[in-house]
Design a protein that fits this description.
Helix content: 40-55%
Family: Belongs to the PEP-utilizing enzyme family.
Radius of gyration: 19 Å
Number of strands: 8
Strand order of the largest sheet: 1-2-3-4-5-6-7-8
Largest sheet: 8 strands, parallel, barrel
Strand content: 5-15%
Protein name: Phosphoenolpyruvate-protein phosphotransferase
EC number: 2.7.3.9
Subcellular location: Cytoplasm
Shape: globular
Organism: Kitasatospora aureofaciens (Streptomyces aureofaciens)
Distance between the termini: 23 Å
Bound molecules: phosphoenolpyruvate, magnesium ion
Length: 314
Amino acid sequence: RRRELLAGFQGPGRTADGHPVSLLVNLGAPHELAGAAAADAEGVGLFRTEFLFLDRAEAPGLAEQAAAYRKTFAAFAGRRVVVRTLDAGADKPLPFVLSADEQNPALGVRGLRSAVRDPQLLETQLAAIAEAARDSTAQVWVMAPMVSVPREAAEFAARARAHGLPMAGAMIEVPAAALRADRLAESCDFFSVGTNDLAQYAFAADRTLGDLAELLDPWQPALLELVATAARSAAGHGRPIGVCGEAAADPALALVLVGLGITSLSAAPVSLPGLRAALAAHTLAQCRELAGLALLADDAATARAEVMSRMSER
Ligand code: PEP
Ligand code: MG
């Protein structure tokens, strides 16, 4: 009885009918590590590694990186840690990676693309992650940001495997990758949807502009359609597919995402109890019904209103 009562408030994420949904934390800076590790989470769904590279004249070397990764893996011993390789870009400027003379940096050589210009950067990072992973019981997965075409995912996965890293995946944050996730799945072991960038690129709306918040609303049915497409492809190949963008932090939207086929949610530690409770109160069939309502809506506000109203009927 006590276990039943607590089921909605702690432990692994599950729907009311027992369908598992992994609840994971996002981690982006060393000062967040203790709080993230203390959270009731199955691990880290998005370990942003940019902090290691910011405010410096050149990239950190292998030993320095390995030491930082080791600390994180030790804090998550026995749990999963999904490490995202360096994602330099318009919103994460790094002078030694990015070229200063791009007119549209959000559309430029960013994310995994910077590995083409400077292959050694990714090589060193993968080597450091692999070295730290060897000394740890954490299940270390690696994923690449800003993958657009299957070849990029395949090359990244091959490089990760060459370093002995068994799980290599791609972020789905460019519409082209969502549309062709079935092809990406041939080389990727898993996916993680970055709804912040996926919204930016789907709506041609700069994610840093508050004026465009309505277009960037993660309830936008077109965004959900892209998530649904990617989730269907992932399921077809038996690949897990998480969401690690802001959308995953909204409990009602999280139910919709699960209804679309998302298998894990990664968010800030404070968001996890609300997500866990929402999942525990709804069956998978109910999540699918909510997802159907959201997809049918004409705009984000209507999608949200329809879903909230159906939830409150229960
Ligand atoms: C995203 O784009 O949704 C994401 C999770 O990555 P970031 O916010 O670091 O670009
Ligand atoms: Mg992103």
